[in-house]
Amino acid sequence: MTPDKYHPPAEAAEVLADCRRLTIASTTDELIDLACGGPGSPYFEVAYDVPGKGRVLEATVARVRNGVAANYTEAYMRRRDPDCMVIGDALPTDKETFQHRFGTDFAPLRQQTFEWLKSQELAMFGFVAGRAGIGMDALVIAPANAGFFALGLAMLQGILPYDAVPPGFLPRAIIYVAPVFRHTHFNGRQVVVHNRRDGLHELFSYNLYPGPSAKKGIYGVLIGQGEREGWVTNHCSTVQVITPYDNVVTIMHEGASGGGKSEMLEQAHREPDGRLLLGENLVTGEQRYLEIPRSCELHAVTDDMALCHPSLQEGRGRLTLIDAESAWFVRVNHLEHYGTDVHLEKLAAEPPVPLLFLSIDAVPGARALVWEHIEDAPGQRCPNPA
What we know:
Layout: H1 10-18, E1 21-24, H2 28-35, E2 43-50, E3 54-64, E4 67-72, E5 85-87, H3 98-102, H4 107-118, E6 121-129, E7 136-143, H5 147-157, E8 173-177, H6 181-184, E9 192-197, E10 200-205, H7 211-229, E11 232-242, E12 248-254, E13 276-280, E14 287-290, E15 297-302, E16 305-308, E17 322-323, H8 342-349, E18 355-358, E19 375-377, E20 380-381
Parallel strand pairs: 1-6, 4-18, 5-9, 7-8, 8-10
Antiparallel strand pairs: 2-3, 3-4, 6-7, 9-10, 11-12, 11-15, 11-16, 13-14, 16-17, 19-20
Helix pairs in contact: 1-4, 2-5
């Protein structure tokens, strides 16, 4: 295998040529083995030598019966820092720039990042951000020992098998992953830098939590593409509702993270006797219920990102969209006991393909259970398990 097949830009090609060792991944199964430390390995520690600090353990990875369970050692790293994104270029933007926040140009750190990557064993693969024919060709270049991060990206955005890379594959977006700089340059904080160049959107992830880069970072890439081409990627969930009377209604819920988009895709949680709990009086303890014998059938369409490309529109005055992701990042903080959402619990416990679990307390060889959340402190559950 050779990285030349992906036609990387010159600086990326130099990094790949000069690194200590390169692994080119073609499947999520290969990334599962990489994440766990190799074929047959049940457990792996993701650690880096940080100048002035020594060995820093970022995360532990366990191979479980239903996939891979990764856990960050710092509670801070178990959720996306809402202020992590900065813009490294001088193009027009309404977001904070690297220059404004850190008082210096991004170019020197960009070059330092390339030099650090050259000193590492690396992994890479190609994917299409968005959808083939709508989005853009993309690459990820990451430390080989951060296989769980690459696995999360491959699940969310897809992965192109090496033999299926088309001759015309041309990356217009690249994710570079360099977690040590979180400690050497950013006082331990999550930082993701978007650097827009001529024909190329670079994304530098200086941490291993996938939310700001593998998910929201790619969303930013698609937003940039749509801005240039005159279309939009909506931040929304979409569901087709079929009533017991065969009425069909499609609902799109656009909103901020944490605004209840994913919950729209779930069936209502019922009491053991089938009633719906509407609410509880916090003073008297009185509970009010609603009785609805039959629920609607829900066909989930999108969970977080929807492509609204011109080629999809039919000219009928209605918006037509398609999912911009290959898989979904599902928070399970509301599942604290067995039986809260039997459908989701069964799907996670016995999935058709291995899953990636984040902040779920699981040991090698066991089955990861989505209500077993890691604790940020004794008795304090992580609020962002997935």
